[in-house]
Amino acid sequence: MRVLICGGGVIGASLAYFLSRRGVQVVVIERTGVACAASGKSGGFLALDWCDGSPLEHLARRSFALHQSLADELGGDWGYRRLDTYAGSRGGRATSTTHTPEWLRAEVHLTQKLGSVGTTAQVHPGQFTAAMMRAAEVRGAELRSGQVTGLSRDAGARVRGVEVAGEVIEGDAVVTAMGPWSILASRWLSLPGVYGLKGHSIVFKTGSDVPPEALFLEFPDHAGETLSPEVFPRADGTTYVCAISSDAPLPVDPAQVAPDPGAIERLEALCSRLSPALTPSRIIARQACYRPVTQDGLPLIGEVPGAPGAYVATGHSVWGILNAPATAEALSELICDRHTQAVELNPFSPGRRSLAPSRLF
Questions:
Q1: Checking DSSP bridges between strand 148-153 and strand 159-164, what pairing results, if any?
Q2: Residue 163 three-state SS
Q3: Cα separation of 5 and 129, whole Å?
Q4: Tens digits of residue pLDDT in 205-216
């Protein structure tokens, strides 16, 4: 079997790994670069039970376990580690289950413990995505640079390949895994709407000044608006902080994504008020990315109705890094075996009634 994957983000790279592990010949087609968008610019936070009670529960729990097993099996270094997680605010009152880290300013207090080393963890998302792609290549997967511009079908309308630079690359199945840019595939497939929600982030070089504790905070900026910064210290001595979302239009080319005017400046000022460790002199990256979201908030995972041989995996919103391994495992089973084992994909069917087809094209 030969499977073509459109998109070199965390979903595409993870799927390439799980398929190649089963002996499938895989070709990943990526126009800009592996982990060039949200897969390289997100926080990389993982939670075992934060999706409990929702349709994502089993997917998230399976994926949390897979992150641990992948770290054990592959032995790669992508910053995987367990960590404690806290909520906090400016002026909040600490409880007996929290503490006051010395690296935060005095007016910032942790008010609740949200997770422990048993339930929360992290990876460096860009490094994890690249590691999955390398592990797939070791097993024979191929990474091609190019932009998919259409599909090839046989006389029975079954999808048999993709068009790239005027050439048809043939395959037995085609998977669209282009994050919010999956909406471009609605030019040749009947897909529900996939949209991009923009977020901004800063990465600081903090060394050992910041302990391995993830923080979810509520903090007012200078204009009085309450923001919700998320702070993720990483194993490589950097600290990632994100906040300030917008609905700015998604550019057609992922390489053209840039921060909104003034957004990074607001985030820098906020970080300086959070901690003396988060000063502008320590910034090593100022960035923005788009998370893929759907109308009902659930991802699209499965075969595209009316297009045998075509599959889609996108729309994971803030849980893309967390749920990539289980998504890839389940979709590889669906493609190869026509059924799944660990996770039921029906809630994420691209043909579910709660979604309307995209009408952008």
A1: antiparallel
A2: strand
A3: 14
A4: 999 999 999 999
Cα gap 223→47, rounded to integer Å: 32
User: Hey, what domains does the chain have and what are their CATH numbers?
Assistant: 2-80+123-193+296-348 (3.50.50.60), 83-119+196-294 (3.30.9.10)
What per-residue confidence (pLDDT) applies to 93? 67
Q: In this structure, which amino acid lies at residue 249? A: P
| Predicted local distance difference test score (pLDDT) of residue 361 | 56
pLDDT tens per residue, range 85-101: 999 998 766 666 677 78
Three-state SS string across 32-96, please? CCCCCCHHHHCCCEEECCCCCCCCCHHHHHHHHHHHHHHHHHHCCCCCCEECEEEEEEECCCCCC
Model-wide pTM > 0.85: yes
> What is the token pair recorded at 323?
């749920």
Pairing of strands 159-164, 213-220: unpaired
The token duo for 5 is: 């994957």
CA distances from 195 to 92, 125, 130, 182, 225 (A): 35, 21, 24, 9, 26
The backbone torsions φ and ψ at residue 170, rounded to the nearest 5 degrees and listed phi first, read: -90, 150
Q: Over the stretch 226-280, which tens digit does the pLDDT of each residue have?
A: 999 999 999 999 999 999 999 999 999 999 999 999 999 999 999 999 999 999 9
- At which residue do the structure tokens 């990474």 appear? 143
Q: Give me the residue label for tokens 């959070």.
A: 274
DSSP 258-321: -PPTTHHHHHHHHHHHH-TTS-GGGEEEEEEEEEEEETTS--EEEEPTT-TTEEEEE--GGGHH
In tens, the pLDDT along 116-134 reads 999 999 999 999 999 999 9
Of the pLDDT bands very low, low, confident and very high (cuts 50, 70, 90), residue 160 is: very high
The per-residue pLDDT for 92 is 63
Which two structure tokens, joined as six digits, stand for 48?
Answer: 């075992």
Cβ burial of 253 (10 Å; 0-12, 13-18, 19+) is exposed
Strand 2-6 with 25-30, pairing: parallel
Written as six digits, the tokens of 155 are 């006389």
